[in-house]
Amino acid sequence: MEEQAKTVTLIITRQDGPDSEPYKETFKIPYRPNMNVISALMEIQRNPVTADGKKTTPVVWEMNCLEEVCGACSMVINGKPRQACTAIIDKLDHPITLEPMRTFPIVRDLIVDRSRMFDSLKKVKAWIPIDGTHNLGPGPRMPESKRQWAYELSKCMTCGVCLEACPNVNSKSNFIGPAPLSQVRLFNTHPTGAMHKSERLNAIMGEGGITNCGNSQNCVQACPKGIPLTTSIAALNREVTVQMFRNFFGSDYS
């Protein structure tokens, strides 16, 4: 931060559309205590003028909850993928660089299309299927020890940061990434979700599945929720090995 002028400098990588060339624009905004990156972007949106006085189009980005729950405001801040709502200006190196995540297709500026991740969640059936819409009564109880670590996995907000950090997730790879894999473990643990355990395991045994993980462990370091992603992947490696033998011998008893 520039103390004398009391301004904040942001260098933003922009792109007018999916097929446009990226370019950078520099903005200087008035400093206020306790600003986050979202409030800085809102200031630029209010008055879209570059540092050299050129009028430009407002920068576009996604946001929703503003409390690190929805995962919408993911972007690369000072070279690291994270949430813009919890990136406090006073705690960042200056000037601040903002870039879109490159693992996903660019829509415009800092907005990306995360369909790749959502399609992977569909592929592994990352939900608990129930019969009908009527009240089925209370579900089966989980042991407290299992419930505690399952709760940690349930904190995933599909922000895409772990996929951005993973070197094995890119435009030349169909690896589904750590977030969908961890959700497989979560829903296979649920007493009702376990009914479809073999389907989920078979889904991640195929192309783009768990064997594409290079164990770089970037994901667990980048996850804003501290989810033990590599622990989930290690557990799933054991489970898919057992499932492979079940498939081979024609047995599928969970």
What's the CATH topology label of the largest domain? Fumarate Reductase Iron-sulfur Protein, Chain B, domain 2
Task: Give the oligomeric state.
Answer: single chain
End-to-end Cα distance:
57 Å
Largest sheet: 5 strands, mixed
Could you give me the name of the CATH homologous superfamily of the largest domain?
Answer: Alpha-helical ferredoxin
Characterization of the model:
It contains eight helices and seven strands. It has helices spanning 37-46, 115-123, 144-153, 161-165, 178-189, 197-205, 218-222, 229-249, and strands at residues 7-14, 23-30, 74-77, 80-83, 96-99, 106-108, 111-112. The strands form two sheets. It has a five-stranded mixed beta sheet with strand order 2-1-5-3-4. A hairpin with a 2-residue loop joins strand 6 (106-108) and strand 7. The relative contact order is 0.12. The model has no long low-confidence stretch (mean pLDDT 91).
